[in-house]
Amino acid sequence: MINAALVGIDFGKTDFEASLEELSLLAKSAGATPAVTLTGRRSSPDAAMFIGSGKAEELRLACEANDVEIVIFNHALSPAQQRNLERALNCRVVDRTSLILDIFAQRARSHEGKLQVELAQLQYLATRLVRAWTHLERQKGGIGLRGPGETQLETDRRLIGERIKMLQGKLAKLRRQHGTQRRQRERTRTMSVSLVGYTNAGKSTLFNALTKAQAYAADQLFATLDTTSRRLWLGDDVGQIVLSDTVGFIRELPHQLVAAFRATLQETVQADLLLHVVDASSSVRLDQIDQVNEVLHEIGADTIRQVLVFNKIDAVPELAARGGTVERDEYGNISRVFLSARTGVGLDALRAAIAEIATAEPLVQASQLLPAADWNAVPHEPSREPELGR
Ligand SMILES: Nc1nc2c(ncn2[C@@H]2O[C@H](COP(=O)(O)OP(=O)(O)OP(=O)(O)O)[C@@H](O)[C@H]2O)c(=O)[nH]1
Ligand SMILES: [Mg+2]
Q1: CB–CB of 43/107 below 8 Å?
Q2: Strand residue runs (E) in 134-261
């Protein structure tokens, strides 16, 4: 474990505290120990170093005194700010985006996940090439790679661009294969249910409790990156459903990541029903619900039927008695379920709720939610039987 300094500047946003606390969790999840936390107030960032020179000096001394090897800003830094800070602090400096990208890179296990993380990293890098250029030029690397009349910066841009295209091509191919699998599933009319929610809300724990699976669950941010699906038997009336555990969301999810993971996210939330898992013990749970809904909106999944699952009620004395409670909206549709994935209280109520929705409510077919372009990308299969219900 290396020592890290966390820097958060309060610009008057209401989620300042929660966001900084989250940065500390992110740092720990990435394998660093937060040894110094520096906060301050500004009306706007300093152009040269994001923080003022006085703060920078204070930070340098604190880093020296605590053997800090990496400084993590809870903000987006420009390439110039990052470079100036590294020089002034004599220490590696990263921003929130690269920290999250780093965690994703450490966690990616599946082929597709690794490709997506690399794509996101390259897209992030492409926006910061000015910086990479100075040291690349010094190395005089890339001999023989350069096209006629190209500067190093142009070569780097071109090579990164080519690699991005290659990755996008590979991902598109994988996606087509998944599309075929999904349509096969749709043909058999298996209801699909996805667990979505803020990172650390307890999705994997709930997934394991429901399916008796052993997905990795841990007190870490982004413990889950790859989607896991399992069949779940819900009694004779409903039969089998497919339940999927998915990657968690976070506030200010780097847009490169959302872009790179869009297909996976869409794929996994292409469900008939979303169980939106909420950490009921978090003081910022309402804020987190909003953040999740924002990402769902961004990937076009906000029209899918959703049930809020208030998890971890064992950790909230006021809610402990509500285990298994099912709340309904003004139309009588199930809106919220209270449970504890850890103790198992309320799991039966959730199973019953899924079964009720499966049998009583007309489901929006997942295929109807796909944008037309996506379907055009699927190669025509002439021998296929006509799909049911379409
Ligand atoms: N007290 C309590 N803790 C829980 C409960 N469910 C999950 N947890 C804890 O919350 C932490 C996160 O659980 P995970 O299941 O990994 O959460 P997740 O939503 O899958 O997280 P990511 O995959 O990182 O997005 C773990 O330490 C769990 O033990 C619960 O019902 N009660
Ligand atoms: Mg998980």
Answers
A1: no
A2: 191-197, 228-233, 240-245
Protein residues near ligand 2, an ion, with CB under 5 A: 203-204, 223-224
pLDDT digits (tens, 9 = 90+) for 8-43: 999 988 888 888 998 998 999 899 999 999 999 999
Q: Which amino acid is at 175?
A: R
205, 206, 276, best to mutate for ligand 1 pocket (most atoms within 8 Å of CB): 205
Pocket, ligand 1, Cβ cutoff 6 A? 197, 199-205, 217-224, 248, 311-312, 314-315, 340-342
Q: pLDDT tens digits for 238-288?
A: 888 999 988 888 877 777 777 777 776 777 677 899 999 999 999 999 999
Ligand in nearest proximity to the CA of 228 = 2
Asked whether the whole model's pTM tops 0.85, one would answer no
β-partners of residue 10 are 41
From the list 192, 338, 196, 194, the residue with the least C-alpha distance to 277 is: 196
Q: Cα(368) to centroid of ligand 2, in Å?
A: 28
For residue 20, how far is its CA from the centre of ligand 2 (angstroms)? 21
Q: Please tell me the distance between residue 33's alpha carbon and the centre of ligand 2 in angstroms.
A: 22
* Residue-level pLDDT at 299: 84
Cβ neighbours of 32 (radius 10 Å): 23
All domains of the chain, ordered by start, with CATH?
2-103 (3.40.50.11060), 108-167 (no CATH), 189-374 (3.40.50.300)
Specify the pLDDT at position 145. 61
What is d(CA 177, CA 293) in angstroms, rounded to the nearest whole number? 28
